[in-house]
Amino acid sequence: MSGGSGNPVLYLDGVSVVFDGFKALNNLSLFVEPGELRAIIGPNGAGKTTMMDVITGKTRPTEGTVRFHQHDLTKLDEATIANLGIGRKFQKPTMFDALTVFENLELALKAPRGPFACLRWILTGEARRKIEGVMEEVGLGARAHDRAGVLSHGQRQWLEIGMLLMQDPELLLVDEPVAGMTDQETEHTAALLVRIAGARSVVVVEHDLEFVRALGSKVTVLCEGTMLSEGSIDHVQSDPRVIEVYLGR
Ligand SMILES: Nc1ncnc2c1ncn2[C@@H]1O[C@H](COP(=O)(O)OP(=O)(O)OP(=O)(O)O)[C@@H](O)[C@H]1O
């Protein structure tokens, strides 16, 4: 068993997911510490998306333990899990193009429930400071009043991360954040994720190994639904099993 020193925020032990007899996850164990940044890599079909789906309650494991602190995530629905403080960023942005960066963050904060909730909303000084803080964190401070629709692909991804941060997640799951980004945007994204981890745990699934290297974090390599190798990027890249999976055929 590996797992670090403290109590993990996220604890997966012996997790399997079987789809029609096919094991998408096979006895997977993974532990993420408070404030940790973790990269998950692996070839196509390795089970990375299925792992994220299990954590967020979209997919139920066939067997195994999935815990967020003391909460058994296998018993909870997606909305409850999100409310516990697990945010997930998908590849496709979900912001409103006609609204500004500031307004999108404002909407993410208040998440109005019910038809008149927004009419009762008054932007308090505290909320404004929070929005400004998040804009600085994701590097969009200078774009506050630009409409989301005019942002570059990279900036839109950062806004989306900012929208998740407005909900104060304790664990943020980020799916292939740098797909389609320029080299400069990719570098900015690595720095951004390093910056925002620490105050919360961040798990990043990504194919781009140069980007993963720039994260400087512990890396977990998945293959055929199970953990193949774990450690620094140098460690996993020199692991013969990883070399075989990535380069061997
Ligand atoms: N709902 C499903 N029903 C049947 N098989 C599925 C289902 N979801 C995923 N799979 C299979 O499980 C395996 C793992 O898929 P998964 O999407 O988790 O891999 P991945 O590592 O995210 O791959 P990629 O890098 O291509 O996104 C794949 O072989 C996939 O075809």
TrEMBL record:
<dbReference type="InterPro" id="IPR027417">
    <property type="entry name" value="P-loop_NTPase"/>
</dbReference>
<dbReference type="InterPro" id="IPR051120">
    <property type="entry name" value="ABC_AA/LPS_Transport"/>
</dbReference>
<keyword id="KW-0813">Transport</keyword>
<dbReference type="InterPro" id="IPR017781">
    <property type="entry name" value="ABC_transptr_urea_ATP-bd_UrtD"/>
</dbReference>
<dbReference type="InterPro" id="IPR032823">
    <property type="entry name" value="BCA_ABC_TP_C"/>
</dbReference>
<dbReference type="GO" id="GO:0005524">
    <property type="term" value="F:ATP binding"/>
</dbReference>
<feature type="domain" description="ABC transporter">
    <location>
        <begin position="10"/>
        <end position="249"/>
    </location>
</feature>
<keyword id="KW-0547">Nucleotide-binding</keyword>
<keyword id="KW-0067">ATP-binding</keyword>
<dbReference type="InterPro" id="IPR003439">
    <property type="entry name" value="ABC_transporter-like_ATP-bd"/>
</dbReference>
<dbReference type="Pfam" id="PF00005">
    <property type="entry name" value="ABC_tran"/>
</dbReference>
<dbReference type="GO" id="GO:0016887">
    <property type="term" value="F:ATP hydrolysis activity"/>
</dbReference>
<dbReference type="GO" id="GO:0005886">
    <property type="term" value="C:plasma membrane"/>
</dbReference>
<dbReference type="Pfam" id="PF12399">
    <property type="entry name" value="BCA_ABC_TP_C"/>
</dbReference>
<protein>
    <submittedName>
        <fullName>Urea ABC transporter ATP-binding protein UrtD</fullName>
    </submittedName>
</protein>
